[in-house]
Each structure stands twice: as C-alpha cells, then as structure tokens.
Write a structure and sequence with these properties.
This protein has 219 residues and is an alpha+beta fold. Helices cover 54% and strands 15% of the residues. It contains eleven helices and six strands. Helix 1 crosses helix 9.
Length: 219
C-alpha cells in the first residue's frame, strides 16, 4: 500500500494532522506504526522516510521556490528526492572528546524547549566549553538530511541562495494539498449515490472515475 491509494492517504493525513508539527511528515510516511514509534525515529531517519514516501506517491522530484535575498528574484529548484534520501543520515552515535553523542529523535525535538536542552538530551554527560563546538558538529552530522540545505545561484545577480528545507514539511504540504480533491470526490459520489465513504474508497480508481464522469455528465 502507498499514499497513492486514497484510503491510505486519508488515514495518513488524519493521523499526521493530530501529530506534533515536527513529526507530521514522518507520521504520514509511517502512519500504521503509531505516533510513539514515529517520535522515536532519529531525525535523519524521519527525513529519509519522508523523502522516500514523497517520491513513491508524488514522483521522484519536488519543485521548490527560493527567493534571492540580494535582488528578490524567484528561483525554481528541482530536488531529486531519492538521491537526497540515499544521502540522509539516520541514527547511531559517536564519541567526541569522551562524550557519547547520539542522533536526536523527533521526540527530542518535541520535548526540548531550546537548542541547549536538545543537545543535553543527546549526550551522556556534561559538555564543557572546549568540547561544545565538536559535540554540536557531531550532533548535526548525525541529524543528516533533517538539516537539508538547498543551494542555487541566482540567474539574475549571481548570488548563491541557500535555504533550509524540512523533508517532513515538504511531504506534509503535498499530502495536505492532495486531500481536498479526494474528499471532494467522495462527497460528490456520496451525494449522487448515497454511498458511504468506505464503499467509495473500496472502488478501484478507474471505476471511481467512471462514476464521477457519469455524475458530471448528469446521468
């Protein structure tokens, strides 16, 4: 089953809508697993599953728009989702100057009120001033694609434009955009034939389209 199936799309959307914002993309991609399992994913893993799920459901690339801070030009950038997913981090731990640093999880992001608290949750002891830069760099590396940065040269002025993107937020946006048309089709068929949602979603896509065409043709 994939998000291409309307029933799973709606179920994933409903589950994710009730999830913390930072976990919505992973909640969409891992809807059957339950929220607790999703929150325990390392942020790099969460990014990878969101990128993979978006590629499977909506195609292998995503188009995003960046704005040049120098001249205000709009830049259209195409993201190769599966390539980004393959390069994602995802879990593990390293020892830096005697301090064990683990990859942050979505639960850490939800529960940590600030960056210092997030770092404290991901180490096994106090971090001194001399260690902090190396420990922070290790934590960032373990986060992997959760810290995805898109770069492109502005065609108008040549400035390099860089913007941080959240793979989970990208997936959530695509799902949120796709759901209204599915709900509209269900509502249209329900009004025409007095069918329930489950009956409509059980129809194969070709049969559902055929019934919609009949309704729209006034038959």
């Amino acid at each position: 089953m994939t998000l291409r199936e309307p029933a799973l799309l709606l179920s994933a959307w409903e589950t994710a809508a009730a999830s913390p914002r930072v976990a919505r993309g992973a909640a969409v991609a891992c809807a059957p697993s339950g929220l607790d399992a999703v929150l325990d994913l390392p942020v790099g893993t969460a990014a990878r599953v969101a990128l993979t799920a978006q590629a499977e459901a909506f195609g292998p690339v995503a188009d995003v728009v960046l704005e040049c801070s120098a001249c205000g030009a709009q830049l259209d950038v195409t993201l190769p989702l599966l390539e980004l997913a393959a390069d994602a981090g995802g879990g593990g731990s390293v020892v830096v100057d005697g301090v064990t640093v683990r990859a942050p999880t979505l639960r850490d992001l939800v529960d940590a009120p600030c960056e210092d608290d997030l770092l404290a949750r991901c180490v096994d002891g106090p971090v001194g001033p001399a260690q902090r830069a190396d420990v922070e760099a290790a934590a960032e590396a373990l986060a992997g694609a959760a810290g995805l940065v898109v770069r492109a040269d502005c065609p108008e002025c040549g400035t390099q434009v860089a913007a941080g993107l959240d793979p989970g937020a990208l997936l959530w946006e695509r799902v949120s955009d796709a759901v209204p048309s599915v709900l509209a089709e269900i509502a249209e068929l329900a009004a025409a034939f007095a069918w329930g949602e489950a009956e409509i979603l059980a129809l194969s896509p070709p049969r559902r389209r055929a019934y919609l065409e009949l309704v729209r043709a006034g038959r």
